[in-house]
Write a structure and sequence with these properties.
Keywords: Aminopeptidase, Hydrolase, Manganese, Protease. The two termini are 27 Å apart. This protein has helices spanning 28-40, 66-86, 102-115, 143-164, 172-186, 195-200, 204-210, 265-279, 325-336, 352-358, 371-384, 395-399, 417-426, 460-470; strands at residues 3-5, 12-18, 44-50, 53-60, 91-96, 133-136, 189-193, 218-224, 235-239, 241-245, 286-295, 307-309, 315-317, 343-348, 363-367, 388-390, 408-409, 433-437, 443-444, 454-455. The protein is α/β, with parallel strands linked by helices and 471 residues long. The protein has 14 helices and 20 strands.
């Protein structure tokens, strides 16, 4: 992980500014060169060597909303990292020009760090970023702000690592061990409920999905409760922890099973968010819940027509074993009631229907929280550029889940799959609640600026910014 310091260090000097900013530089030829490059391109990077060191100017237009400008800054930082890494540079100092805000500078630095990630664990010849230190010398940017950026990036890297890890080395038990270590590193408390306890709690959703697995399930409880917490009732985060999804007896076909190690992306997002919240010591009481299992064909796995009983007594007719995430989440949402929560937010790579709506560009949302909470969450989504698309949540979607032999079916047919999944989850809530379907942006087949191939860590920065806004 790149170190951040609130001081000038050796290596290259990085200037960041809006296009057409006036450049003052000791080297008139360098200033003239930067001006010509700006005139030619709306955004870019230009370098001027100075012996063993160099000056680089990174610019972009100042057109658009604050959300757009911050994203331009992140992308500029990502491109800058690619350039310095290509040249094997280990140290740079960032300074700002003109009317660049401190928020843009921090987003620029964030983009540098996020782009530096790569999952090299299983490669014989590992390639890591050459960049080791960034100095930031900008008005109103202090070490505390830089530490916050770095800690939050660490949390994103944690989530990415969890998603990228294959199930052969990250089953439910190992996921729990990683959560425990994350708590030890950041400060949140972690407890793992074993299969015996899960049975005592009658978590029929989690136990039902686990019937086809040779590995027992776990139910992970994380809690950050600082003495200076400003909320009397906790915020509860719930994450889907399906460490691998074959689809069960409704087996996924061919290429549709590839990348299903990412089906615990919601659990990874909650773990990463808890890490960032605790590491940065936000004065907010937050609980994280992650039910974990794989979904396989073996032993006495669920089949369509089975009926299972969730921990609140609700009976569910199984019509599709590949709609398993909502089953394990239902037990977690019931468990969340014990906290009398101020708000519950769940994260899940839940439906292909949501991915078809948002693609990798955003997150699908439904829920019952009031408009002020939704507006605050949307604002955080814009701030970190993990934007939210709220879907209709009409009562008629719930009617599609009616069963002839049980209280509910686990699927609602071809209409509004992302919404009927939300309606299923809603049944198990009696508190303000938001469901975020991250199926679209959680895992990428090709890199996108500061987002790598594989796990993106989506949801971590979103939830950190949201919880911070409530502090």
């Amino acid at each position: 992980m790149i170190e951040l310091k609130n001081e000038a260090i050796g290596g290259g000097l990085i200037l960041i500014g809006h296009r057409n900013v006036e450049i003052h530089h000791a080297d008139d030829e360098a200033a003239s060169y930067f001006k010509r490059r700006m005139d030619a391109d709306e955004q870019g990077i230009a370098n001027v060597p100075h012996g063993d060191e160099f000056t680089s100017f990174s610019w972009y237009t100042n057109e658009g909303s604050q959300s757009v400008l911050l994203e331009k800054a992140r992308k500029a930082g990502a491109k800058l990292h690619q350039a310095v890494n290509s040249d094997k540079i280990s140290q740079i100092t960032v300074r700002s020009l003109g009317d660049i805000t401190k928020e843009e500078v921090l987003a620029f630095v964030e983009g540098i760090i996020l782009q530096s990630y790569s999952f090299e664990k299983y490669k014989k010849n590992k390639v890591e970023s050459s960049l080791k230190e960034i100095g930031v010398v900008v008005d109103n940017v202090d070490q505390q702000l830089l530490d916050e950026v770095r800690n939050t990036a660490e949390a994103v890297f944690l989530a990415r690592d969890l998603v990228n890890e294959p199930v052969i080395t990250l089953n439910a038990q190992e996921f729990s061990q990683r959560i425990i270590r994350a708590g030890e590193d950041s400060g949140f408390a972690a407890e793992v409920l074993t299969e015996a306890v899960i049975k005592e709690l009658d978590m029929g959703g989690l136990l039902g999905v686990n019937r086809g697995s040779i590995d027992p399930p776990t139910f992970n409880v994380m809690e950050w409760k600082p003495e200076n917490a400003k909320n009397e009732q906790p915020i509860v985060l719930v994450g889907k922890g399906v460490v691998y999804d074959t689809g069960g007896n409704n087996l996924k076909g061919g290429k549709n099973m590839s990348s299903m190690k990412s089906d615990m992306g919601g659990g990874a997002a909650v773990t990463g968010a808890m890490y960032a919240i605790a590491k940065n010591k936000l004065p907010v009481h937050v609980v994280g819940l992650v039910p974990a299992t794989d979904n396989r064909i073996d032993k006495n796995a669920l089949v369509p027509d089975d009926v299972i009983t969730i921990s609140d007594g609700t009976t569910v007719e199984i019509q599709n074993t590949d709609a398993e995430g909502r089953l394990i989440l239902s037990d977690a949402l019931v468990y969340a009631k014990k906290y009398d929560p101020q708000l519950v937010v769940d994260f899940a790579t839940l439906t292909g229907a949501a991915a078809a709506i948002t693609g990798p560009f955003g997150v699908a949302m439904v829920g019952t929280a009031d408009d002020d909470i939704k507006k605050t969450l949307n604002k955080s989504g814009e701030q970190v550029y993990e934007r939210i698309a709220e879907l209709p949540f009409w009562d008629e979607y719930g009617d599609l889940l009616k069963s002839d032999i049980a209280d509910m079916k686990n699927v609602g047919g071809p209409i509004g799959g992302a919404v009927t999944a939300g309606k299923f989850l809603h049944h198990f809530t009696d508190y303000p609640w938001i469901h975020l379907d991250i199926a679209g942006p959680a895992f990428l087949d090709s890199p996108d600026e500061y987002k790598p191939v594989g796990g993106t860590g989506v949801g971590v920065r979103l939830m950190y910014d949201f919880v911070k806004s409530l502090a």
